[in-house]
């Protein structure tokens, strides 16, 4: 969504779903995994809205939907592409919105070639490097630059110093805003009839995504598919809006970013972005997942989605900003955001004379995602590892590789509530049983440090709708349990004390950090509100800032995260506000605080027409008040408050000043929603259907089977890939499996499998299969099943249910297997981990694993134990003809 609209967060908020006329939930079981937010879906339904649930399984969400659409896991782009084709073919798009607020009228370069021309790939593909040169994807009349983060990878080329660092970190700039526009102006055709304009390219691209193809690829009957098309189009337009909600069912694929892009294309065509009851809601599965990308815990981003610099020779602050900041839109102010952050890090040490300590920032030399880190452990490069709230021994893809990697460390620190599997694998992991590892041979020194729960500390969560909510400590943590804030602060304090006498320049970044946080209590707990105040920022006199508009690039402002600026405005913890709903309107601006600037619906300038009038009174949100000379309405306007609709910037304007009065997408360099992405994604400007890495079917749409630039890890004997549906051996793994969550357990089980009541509610790992599959494979309800992939084997109790409906795909019967992923060998409720079956094939933009669609075999009975389990997997590999090259072709 960052590439499509300018920000990576949800475009709307959950309470606004009550105003939707239609809600499509796809890639999520919202009723069970986000039950509190689901109340607003039910409110919308009570008001007459239609609810559509698209999911391989029939769940509690499906039971409450008007229409449930079972489809083959991994085929969502074909399904969404079919809806896009229907919208374009029937003229159901919101034309006035598309012309004014999207890049539909922009003309592309003459040398661009689409997947329709090249049988499934775009122009610029280099198969050897598994990467695209996106030069031919650009707009006619301008040179587009890559998205924030990628621009810095290309710094050497842009600075005239040689070739770009294309492999440095691939495309992890998701969420960082769209591409910059070079000199000149894009060629536009307001009639959208030019054969090379984005709108016409879009029509040609999706023309083959017909109802017949959707039925063949997805297994969705044509009448059901057409019903969904009609519900979505009938409930979109000037007077009606449709919302989409998704979760990790969309993100955990080798084309996960393009799943979300497909929804973005559809919602932009229908005019559903920035409007009440519309938008795209990225459902976050547990507390502060949004916050962990905002502040962040990601290797490639600094707080507020500022990209982490790459390693270049002699790059200073100004050249980094020149290489990375957009010339137009709010990313044009990136220097102010970055300098204010550097001042928060290094305080008085950061001055104009030393580039505000820009050289103190670490530099990326490659992709350092969790999976590359595992490979670095196996190679002996990564020596130490902190696990804070993670349980990769069962919770990450290919859990065996995670454990093998940790066994190759010098030291491992695990902070958690319970003795999770990532703390005990060295004595009771599966490899101990198989004989692949012996405890006495493992040299890793493991430290387990008990963690405090959220009820035992102060702090904030940033949830699904970008909403910061404060939680107060209810009770002190027991025994030696400590908060994450305590751990990070005191670890930093102790390390700084040990280095205090150092004269090594390498230690200066650590020693010069601002680390004077106030503490309280017998354990010297850092004051969480003081940290929030630093994140918010202050001016040179120490006064709290109220908006990121106040940030300066001269070092006179301090701000730990520019998008959070305002959360401590007036010295008041805005996140702690809890004004009851009965005392305010439905936007509820005084319940917590939403970034940015407490806006609840992003891009809400698009809720009004180019003249500033609401598209309809029924869907009014913000509008231009000519008498007052400002934007007003129900929400905080996502726009310069005094910028009139008829404002046109001078040709030499830069940054936010370069946006016109009709540019609602203020984080984009052109102010528009992007139907087509000329730069910013590594795998193509338009979403395209590719088969999952492990699929029993050929790609029916193109000769190109898989995403040609999917991110594959270096070959490893325990990470073998399976033959595709076009290759001999794929019949050995004939079924499609998908993983999912349950209401009663939480993520990898560390917070729930140790709770007796929850363990009693969901006591054992199980698999869901249809009665038809159970009969054909001799599976008995509540009996045992063995599930096998090329990576591992697990056993599960059998749940025979009509909820897993068989599908007809490409003329043959397909059965799918549902696997909840919460289990491991520790705790009260124990069982095998579904992630033992997964491969390491990742989305090339976000480096997220493909966990939601992979091929398996299933057989009756319990799995073999010890070395016999390894032998079973080896037998499957041999029968499928698998070697280290299988499945690795572009």
Automatic annotation (TrEMBL):
GO cellular component: cell envelope
Sequence segments annotated as region (Disordered): 143-190, 634-661
GO BP: anaerobic respiration
Domain Molybdopterin oxidoreductase: 15-418, 449-489
Keyword Plastid: no
Gene3D superfamilies, per database record: 2.40.40.20, 3.40.50.740, Dimethylsulfoxide Reductase, domain 2
Signal peptide: none
Keyword Magnesium: no
Cross-referenced Pfam families: Molybdopterin, Molydop_binding
Coiled-coil regions listed: none
Compartments it resides in: Cell envelope
Cofactor(s) the protein requires to work: [4Fe-4S] cluster
Molybdopterin dinucleotide-binding domain boundaries: 737-854
Alphabetized UniProt keyword annotations: 4Fe-4S, Iron, Iron-sulfur, Metal-binding, Oxidoreductase
Domain of life per record: Bacteria
Segments of skewed composition (Basic and acidic residues): 635-651
GO molecular function terms attached to this record: 4 iron, 4 sulfur cluster binding; electron transfer activity; molybdenum ion binding; molybdopterin cofactor binding; oxidoreductase activity
NCBIfam families: formate_DH_Act
Stated family: Belongs to the prokaryotic molybdopterin-containing oxidoreductase family.
Annotated protein name in UniProt: Molybdopterin-dependent oxidoreductase
Organism: Streptomyces coelicoflavus
């Amino acid at each position: 969504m960052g590439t499509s609209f300018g920000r990576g967060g949800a475009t709307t908020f959950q309470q606004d779903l009550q105003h939707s006329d239609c809600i499509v939930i796809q890639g999520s079981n919202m009723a069970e995994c986000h039950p509190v937010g689901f109340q607003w879906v039910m409110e919308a339904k009570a008001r007459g809205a239609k609810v559509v649930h698209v999911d391989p399984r029939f769940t509690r969400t499906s039971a409450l939907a008007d229409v449930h659409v079972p489809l083959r896991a991994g085929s969502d782009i074909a399904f969404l592409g079919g809806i896009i084709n229907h919208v374009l073919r029937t003229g159901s798009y919101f034309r006035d919105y598309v012309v004014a607020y999207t890049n539909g009228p922009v003309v592309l370069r003459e040398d661009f070639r689409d997947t329709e021309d090249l049988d499934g790939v775009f122009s610029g593909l280099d198969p050897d490097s598994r990467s695209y040169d996106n030069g031919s994807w650009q707009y006619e009349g301008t040179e587009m630059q890559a998205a924030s983060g990628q621009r810095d990878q290309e710094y050497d080329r842009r600075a005239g110093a040689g070739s770009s660092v294309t492999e440095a970190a691939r495309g992890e700039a998701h969420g960082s805003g769209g591409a910059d526009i070079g000199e000149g102006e894009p060629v536009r055709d307001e009639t959208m009839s030019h054969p090379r304009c984005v709108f016409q390219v879009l029509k040609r691209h999706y023309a083959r995504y017909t109802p017949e193809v959707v039925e063949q690829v997805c297994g969705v009957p044509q009448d059901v598919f057409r019903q969904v098309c009609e519900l979505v189009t009938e409930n979109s337009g000037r007077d009606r809006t449709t919302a989409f909600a998704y979760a990790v069912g969309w993100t955990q694929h080798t084309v996960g970013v393009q799943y979300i892009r497909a929804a973005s294309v559809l919602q932009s065509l229908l005019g559903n972005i920035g409007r009440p009851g519309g938008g795209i809601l990225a459902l976050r599965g547990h507390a502060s997942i949004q916050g962990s990308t905002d502040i962040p815990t990601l290797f490639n981003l600094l707080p507020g989605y500022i990209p982490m610099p790459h390693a270049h020779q002699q790059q200073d602050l100004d050249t980094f900003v020149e290489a990375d900041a957009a010339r137009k839109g709010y990313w044009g102010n990136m220097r102010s955001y970055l300098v204010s952050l550097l001042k928060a890090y290094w305080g008085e040490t950061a001055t104009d004379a030393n580039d505000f300590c820009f050289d103190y920032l670490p530099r990326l030399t490659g992709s350092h995602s969790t999976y590359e880190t595992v490979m670095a452990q196996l190679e002996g490069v990564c020596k130490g590892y902190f696990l804070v709230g993670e349980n990769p021994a069962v919770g990450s893809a290919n859990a065996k590789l995670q454990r093998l990697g940790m066994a190759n460390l010098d030291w491992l620190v695990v902070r958690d509530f319970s003795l999770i599997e990532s703390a005990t694998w060295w004595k009771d992991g599966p490899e101990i049983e198989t004989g692949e590892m012996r405890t006495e041979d493992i040299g890793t020194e493991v430290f387990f440090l008990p963690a405090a729960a959220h009820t035992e500390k102060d702090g904030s969560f940033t949830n699904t709708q970008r909403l910061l909510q404060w939680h107060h400590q209810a009770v002190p943590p027991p025994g030696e349990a400590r908060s994450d804030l305590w751990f990070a602060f005191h670890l930093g304090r102790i390390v700084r004390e040990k280095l205090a006498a150092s004269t090594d320049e390498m230690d200066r970044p650590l020693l010069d950090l601002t680390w004077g946080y106030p503490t309280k209590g017998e354990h010297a707990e850092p004051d969480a509100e003081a940290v929030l105040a630093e994140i918010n920022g202050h001016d040179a006199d120490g006064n709290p800032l109220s908006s990121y508009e106040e940030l300066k690039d001269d070092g006179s402002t301090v701000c730990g995260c520019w998008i959070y600026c305002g959360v401590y405005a007036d010295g008041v913890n805005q996140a702690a506000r809890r004004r009851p709903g009965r005392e305010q309107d439905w936007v509820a601006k005084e319940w917590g605080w939403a970034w940015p600037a407490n806006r609840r619906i992003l891009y809400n300038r698009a809720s009004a027409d180019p003249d500033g009038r609401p598209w309809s009174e029924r869907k009014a949100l913000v509008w231009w008040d000519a008498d007052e000379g400002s934007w007003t309405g129900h929400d905080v306007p996502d726009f310069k408050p005094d910028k009139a609709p008829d404002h046109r910037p001078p040709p030499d304007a830069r940054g936010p000043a370069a946006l016109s009065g009709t540019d609602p997408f203020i984080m984009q360099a052109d102010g528009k929603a992007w139907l087509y992405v000329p730069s910013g994604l590594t795998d193509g400007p338009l979403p395209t259907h590719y088969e999952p890495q492990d699929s029993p079917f050929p790609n029916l749409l193109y000769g190109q089977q898989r995403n040609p630039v999917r991110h594959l890890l270096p070959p490893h004997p325990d990470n073998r890939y399976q033959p595709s549906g076009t290759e001999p051996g794929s019949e050995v793994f004939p079924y499609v499996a998908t993983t999912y969550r349950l209401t009663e357990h939480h993520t990898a089980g560390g917070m729930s499998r140790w709770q007796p009541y929850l363990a009693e509610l969901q006591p054992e790992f199980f698999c869901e299969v249809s009665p038809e599959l159970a009969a054909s494979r001799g599976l008995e309800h509540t009996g045992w099943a063995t599930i096998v992939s090329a990576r591992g084997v697990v056993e599960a109790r059998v749940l025979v249910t009509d909820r897993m409906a068989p599908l007809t795909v490409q003329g043959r019967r397909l059965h799918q297997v549902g696997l909840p992923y919460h289990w491991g060998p520790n705790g009260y409720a124990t069982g095998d981990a579904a992630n033992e079956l997964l491969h390491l094939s990742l989305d090339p933009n976000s480096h997220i694993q493909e966990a939601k669609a992979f091929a398996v075999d299933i057989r009756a009975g319990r799995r073999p134990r010890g070395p016999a389990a390894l032998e079973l997997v080896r037998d499957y590999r041999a029968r499928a003809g698998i070697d280290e090259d299988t499945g690795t072709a572009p």
